[in-house]
Amino acid sequence: MDHIIEVSFVVEPQGEAVIATANPLPERGPAPPPPRTVVSPGDTVTWRFPPERHLQVLLKQQGTFPNLVFGPSRGPFSSLSVGVGQIVGTISPGVPTNMTQSTRFTYDLFENGRRLRWANNILDGGIDIPRTPP
Q1: Long-range pairs of 79-86 with CB within 8 A, sequence gap ≥ 24
Q2: What values do phi and psi take at 118, rounded to 5?
């Protein structure tokens, strides 16, 4: 399964900022809630952004609160590749799959070596494994 994260840009009083919108989920209504999207080994996570932008992703911490480990890593991915208008990561076979114990992987987005500021004072992007990203 491919989990899509749409990356867009807004202008705030402090300047340009980035937004990462989670993969779409079914609408909620009076019926029972939709099934939870689960990120599994072998799935892909794709960040999509305007093709004229040249973005990179830096995974910076992982763990379960409050035991977060800081430092650059590959996060939950066995591979990451950058293409025109997208970054694609393949989920590693060793990621946690127990729904009662989710692991959070946080990330920042960069363009031309410059860290992009998140909109609305958000500190960073995040992917929860095995739950829905970001």
Answers
A1: 82/55, 82/56, 84/51, 85/48, 85/49, 85/50, 85/51, 85/53, 86/46, 86/47, 86/48, 86/49
A2: -80, 145
Whether residue 86 contacts residue 68, with contact meaning beta carbons closer than 8 Å, is answered with no
Span of 30-34, 42-46, 75-79, 83-87 with lowest mean pLDDT: 30-34
> Tokens representing 133?
């990203």
**Class of CATH domain 2-23+37-129:** mainly beta
d(Cα 10, Cα 84) in Å, to the nearest integer?
A: 20
Residue recorded with tokens 């480990």 = 69
pTM for the full predicted model: 0.81
**What backbone torsions phi and psi does residue 120 show, to the nearest 5 degrees?**
60, 30
Q: Which of 132, 122, 127 is nearest to 18 (CA)?
A: 122
Q: Which two tokens stand for residue 116?
A: 């992009």
Residues in the chain: 134
DSSP designation for 120:
G
